Amino acid sequence: MILQDYDKLIFEISSQGHTGYDMPKSEVEEYDLDAELGEYSRKEPARLPEVSELQILRHYTQLSNRNFGVESGPYPLGSCTMKYNPKVNENIAAMDGFANIHPLQDPETAQGALQLMYELQESLQEITQLDTITLQPAAGAQGELAAILAFKAYFESIGELEQRRVILIPDSAHGTNPATAMVAGFETIELPSTPEGIIDVEAVRAAVGPDTAGIMITNPSTAGLFERDAKEIVDIVHEAGGLAYYDGANLNAIMGITSPGAMGFDACHLNLHKTFTGPHGGGGPGSGPIGVVEKLAPFLPGPNVAKEGDKYVFVMPEKSFGRVKGNYGNFGVNVRAYSYIRAMGPDGLRRASEDAVLNANYLRVLVKDHFDAPFESFNKNDFVLNLTRHKKEYGVNAKDVGKRMLDYGVHAPTTYFPLIVEECLMVEPTETESKRDLDYVADVLIKIAQEAVENPELVQSAPHNTPVRRLDEAAASRKPVLKFAFEEHATKPEGLQE
Ligand SMILES: Cc1ncc(COP(=O)(O)O)c(C=O)c1O
């Protein structure tokens, strides 16, 4: 059989003289940029692949077919809320006035964009029930850091920064929470969970003191459980003079039902790229706006959008610690979130959360007789399974099950997280999966549980039907090959100097 070149890199199928386009003859006189740049001018031509339009289309279409996305099949990656992103939001973000805005564009000429930002700030204020929103941060982790830096600036302003050194973090927390606290210069104390999997109120009571700067809580937690004592915990921290931070990455379970503000928190971040249909994966692009109570508002990063008369303007909060992003934030993701919120309306957002919780619990109940669950309670938007018994009895671990799911066209759940559950699979189906697809995911999990008993080797060596088999993940992260070795693979353009 003659094989096409679909496995090759774009540089390897390059051949001199191919182009994807023809530029019209320029009517403008040529400008000698090299002379202007002098010693900074390019010494050799850029090493770009030379391919025709059809070649490049085939190349990327083939690559995209080998990838797994939410449009390929169910993607129950717990904690990540891989819900379907409606195409209408994409179309709106691609509109000329939104897509081609310049980061330094004069706000006078971008009033529509500022109006969108202003109205998005207002919507998120209503959703979080907090007083002020900034759209600056470009990810959840950056939102966390921005908020904790605002805590820091606040304590400095009241002369308590030296004293308040400690941030309390539950053992179920996402890794970004302790990392944020440390990067911001605080120490952390880990809070244990109860056997039920939620934060132990008495442990909070025992841990707070005059050195408490705050607490960071994810609700629902990373175990998919609602922290029903959140309000009491926040009160304990407040009484000790600390501030309470709400990691809103799991807001998909509570939108329109309750809010960080209603639970008494001082600040929160939202992951617009999870809950509000910004696409995500591969580390971005994201948007992690934060909301804060009034006393923290002067310390927020900026600029943020305000309305003066009928004009929208950028304003820097009075005692801001600075910027964390350009004026418009990660604008494209914010446009998608705005479009989603406007299309859904308050009732639609609440319904999305209710369906997300319903779907997670429906799936949990379908598979519960085939896997062990560490916690006995009703879940929110995701649930966790413990594969320790499968590992001990059949030698099949959580990773093996996740990899085998790929063979059935279902993306693996999150594995080995949260850390408080051994051999953990964390499953989050989201509200955008139909009953038919949920039934299919359940059938797949049940089938794999049977395979683990009858043919463990089949599961241990999965995946079998994917474009690449099991990767050596440790080698991939320790010895990543990030650079294309041009010299080894491609035909050098003639006259190219080394
Ligand atoms: C609970 C929780 N907090 C924070 C984050 C960090 O968000 P981001 O990945 O946008 O930085 C995540 C993301 O996975 C999360 O699940």
UniProtKB/TrEMBL annotation:
Its EC number is 1.4.4.2. It catalyses: N(6)-[(R)-lipoyl]-L-lysyl-[glycine-cleavage complex H protein] + glycine + H(+) = N(6)-[(R)-S(8)-aminomethyldihydrolipoyl]-L-lysyl-[glycine-cleavage complex H protein] + CO2. Keywords: Oxidoreductase, Pyridoxal phosphate. The modification N6-(pyridoxal phosphate)lysine is found at K274. Residues 352-454 form the Glycine dehydrogenase C-terminal domain. Its cofactor is pyridoxal 5'-phosphate. GO terms for molecular function: glycine dehydrogenase (decarboxylating) activity. It is an enzyme of class 1 (oxidoreductase). Residues 51-305 form the Glycine cleavage system P-protein N-terminal domain. The glycine cleavage system catalyzes the degradation of glycine. The P protein binds the alpha-amino group of glycine through its pyridoxal phosphate cofactor; CO(2) is released and the remaining methylamine moiety is then transferred to the lipoamide cofactor of the H protein. PANTHER family: GLYCINE DEHYDROGENASE (DECARBOXYLATING), MITOCHONDRIAL, GLYCINE DEHYDROGENASE, DECARBOXYLATING. Belongs to the GcvP family. C-terminal subunit subfamily. The glycine cleavage system is composed of four proteins: P, T, L and H. In this organism, the P 'protein' is a heterodimer of two subunits. This is Probable glycine dehydrogenase (decarboxylating) subunit 2. The gene is gcvPB.
